[in-house]
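Hi support team,

I've been running sequence recovery on a batch of backbones for a student project. Most finish fine, but this one hangs at about 90% for roughly twenty minutes before it completes. I'm not sure whether the input is malformed or the queue is just slow. I've pasted the structure tokens below so you can try to reproduce it. Let me know if you need the job ID as well.

Thanks,
M.K.
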């Protein structure tokens, strides 16, 4: 069986050599799909990740301005690597960011936010399958976050899902939706 760690290595290598134009096109299409998804639903508090640029992660920052104008609250996280947890903060127009040692942009002057009343969580992933399971970076940070809330769990990917991830753990929580540049998949 091919392991999650193997998939992580291969997907990260693929992302790093991906063509910049293809990435930009797919990312723009993904942002449009996310915008359409949000317009069809009433979400007030949106938790999202900020893209690790060198990993060519999906970058939804073009959506922040319209969300702020629509009076939506955006919540982002800061990672505590020592205790393997994330703290969550309101991301506002004036929020300053710094990049941590893993390349993740994080807030440095933001107000702390509760995860209990988040409506939707955009989940980063390296790979997802057609059953809603995902492979992340392996730290378990998002698995812990997803277990703490009843928020809608939406994965974001620049690629379509694979048929099935065979290696699943007891703590893996499936997504409710996966949004790609090509299609939105609903699970459950």
């Amino acid at each position: 069986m091919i392991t999650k760690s193997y998939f992580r290595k291969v997907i990260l290598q693929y992302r790093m050599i991906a063509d910049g134009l293809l990435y930009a096109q797919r990312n723009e299409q993904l942002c449009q799909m996310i915008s359409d998804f949000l317009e069809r639903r009433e979400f007030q508090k949106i938790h999202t990740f900020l893209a690790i640029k060198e990993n060519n992660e999906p970058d939804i920052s073009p959506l922040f301005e319209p969300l702020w104008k629509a009076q939506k609250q955006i919540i982002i996280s800061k990672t505590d690597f020592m205790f393997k947890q994330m703290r969550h903060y309101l991301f506002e127009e004036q929020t300053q960011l710094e990049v941590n040692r893993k390349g993740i942009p994080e807030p440095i002057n933001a107000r702390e936010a509760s995860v209990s009343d988040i409506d939707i969580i955009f989940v980063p992933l390296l790979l997802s399958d057609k059953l809603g399971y995902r492979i992340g970076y392996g730290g378990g940070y998002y698995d812990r976050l997803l277990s703490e809330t009843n928020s809608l769990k939406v994965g974001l990917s620049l690629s379509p899902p694979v048929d099935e991830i065979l290696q699943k753990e007891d703590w893996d929580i499936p997504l409710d939706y996966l949004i790609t540049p090509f299609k939105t998949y609903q699970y459950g």
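--
Follow-up from support: It reproduced on our side and the slowdown came from queue contention, not your input. The chain has four helices and eleven strands. No action needed from you.
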